[in-house]
Amino acid sequence: MAAIESVGVIGTGIIGKPIAERLVKAGFRTLVYDVREEPLRELEALGAIVCASPGLVAESSDMVVSLVADTPQTDEVVFGERGILRTIRPGTIFATGSTLGPAPVLRAAEALRAKGCETLDMPITGGYVAAYEGKLALMIGGAEETLERARPALSTFANVITLAGGVGAGQSAKVAHQLILTVNVVALLEGLALGVAGGVKPDVLKAILRDGLASSRALEVWKDLGPRWKGMLAPADPSAPLPNLRKDLHTAIELAKALGIEVPVAIEASRVADGGSATGHDDPRL
Questions:
Q1: What angle do CA 105, 271, 282 make, to 5 degrees?
Q2: Distances (CA, A) of 225 to 38, 118, 127, 208, 222
Q3: Residues 154 and 14 in one domain
Q4: What's the pLDDT score for residue 240?
Q5: What angle, rounded to 10 degrees, do the helices at 102-113 and 169-197 form?
Q6: Mean pLDDT by 10 residues, the chain (286 residues)
Q7: 106 shares its domain with 123
Q8: For position 244, which CATH number holds?
């Protein structure tokens, strides 16, 4: 198959925008679509080509990267009236970086295979700082030859690319990752609150944890990402869309149920997270 020269990015939010920026700067012909105008105009100023629909992105791209929020939005990108299924060319790679669980990705992959296209199930971890630095980590589900064809483009924004298995395996890896991360974040909030209430200064307590067996990657990046995670776990209107951390934990629990796996700690962490009682007391200065 021919090398990838043009890449479409659908969804230019907190992760999608820096990914598109890095693709442009690396010399890829980069097409972008989002429902919001502001990031599109900023990307256009850098050299990206703004498209009016996902379908228009797909008809001129060798690879389409979908970075929308959830399953309904992904279904709209793929199957919608202005979706990629209507315009995508045979041989195009579809890569979804959203955390959805295996079933929606497998459904999209089957429909795209009928069009002569391959799918990379490509959940992402690392956060927006890593996205701007080109240091994201990708958990890939798909064929090895498809990954190798996509690798030059993926390497512009990711420095860790791991093939987890076939399509769907990337999603399974990501929701397992998010289960562990969210339980870790909730435990950190409770432990920090306990130590601070017991008279330990926040910075001293964090240093003690970093030097002990309770240390974790979440604690290491707490200064940068802790406030954002706390916002995701804060009390919210029940009708509001779930923030990513809580949404991904729900997805992990749903997958566990489908697979017959018991995850009682995750279920309790989800209850605490959804109740808004896990946040706000780890550091009086935050």
A1: 110
A2: 24, 34, 8, 19, 5
A3: yes
A4: 83
A5: 160
A6: 94 97 98 97 98 98 97 97 97 97 97 98 92 97 98 98 98 97 93 90 94 95 88 85 91 97 97 84 56
A7: yes
A8: 1.10.1040.10
State how far the Cα of 16 lies from the Cα of 10, in Å rounded to an integer.
Answer: 8
Full domain range(s) for residue 220: 172-275
262 located within any domain:
yes
Pair (103, 186) in one structural domain? no
- My answer on whether 188 and 145 are in the same domain is no
Q: Are 37 and 44 in contact (CB under 8 A)?
A: no
pTM over 0.85: yes
- Which domain CATH number covers 35? 3.40.50.720
Say which amino acid occupies 278.
A
Domain assignment present for residue 281? The answer is: no
SS (H, E, C) 165-226: ECCCHHHHHHHHHHHHHHHHHHHHHHHHHHHHHCCCCHHHHHHHHHCCCCCCHHHHCHHHHH
Which pLDDT score, from 0 to 100, does residue 280 have? 61
